[in-house]
Amino acid sequence: MSDLAVAKRYAVALFQIAKEQNLLTQMEEELQAIKQIFSEQKDLLAFLEHPKLSKSAKKEVIANSFSKLSEPIINTLFIMLEGHRTGEIKLMAEEFIQLANEENSIAEATVYTVRPLTDTEREAVSTAFAAKVGKRTLKINNIADSSIIGGIKLQIGNRIFDGSVSGKLDRLSKQLLS
């Protein structure tokens, strides 16, 4: 079974528990943190996957490191450890977040601008583009990128809305050359 399929199964099970216990928002925030930790702390994953270390030592590290997390998430981490699936923890967190976003009609967007957006600008971008993709709101990850010269470039999933000056110049250059 592929890593993605395994991660999806764990995420779906955890998502159902979250809905039943009315902990969807809390567990989504906790899994955002887990996703970030497993993205940044490669040593933690290496430790959890080390074949010579005992499962009890690994469980202790999980219990101590993630003691503030909800019980269903810690139990899921333990189950994944038992099943030698620690490599899929980050993927599972991403899948859960995607399920939670679908449930709440939210899309994640990466917005490239010359300078960081203000809260008012974030709200305006969210309102304008959420409707275009059929969602209620957008979670915006703003990246300052001086190479776009001006304007805005927005990516939601595999869709790109390019209203940047550099994008317009590229399109104009292609038109002139054809």
Automatic annotation (TrEMBL):
Topology of this chain in the membrane: Peripheral membrane protein
Location(s) in or outside the cell: Cell membrane; Membrane
Highest taxon listed in the record's lineage: Bacteria
The UniProt record lists the keyword Cell membrane: yes
Transmembrane residue ranges: none
Cellular component, GO annotation: plasma membrane; proton-transporting ATP synthase complex
Gene Ontology molecular function: proton-transporting ATP synthase activity, rotational mechanism
Keyword terms: ATP synthesis, Cell membrane, CF(1), Coiled coil, Hydrogen ion transport, Ion transport, Membrane, Transport
UniProt entry tagged with the keyword GTP-binding: no
Major site of localization recorded for this protein: membrane
One Pfam entry name: OSCP
InterPro entries named among the record's database cross-references: ATP_synth_OSCP/delta_N_sf, ATPase_OSCP/dsu
Coiled-coil stretches: 17-44
Primary role: This protein is part of the stalk that links CF(0) to CF(1). It either transmits conformational changes from CF(0) to CF(1) or is implicated in proton conduction.
Family: Belongs to the ATPase delta chain family.
Protein name: ATP synthase subunit delta
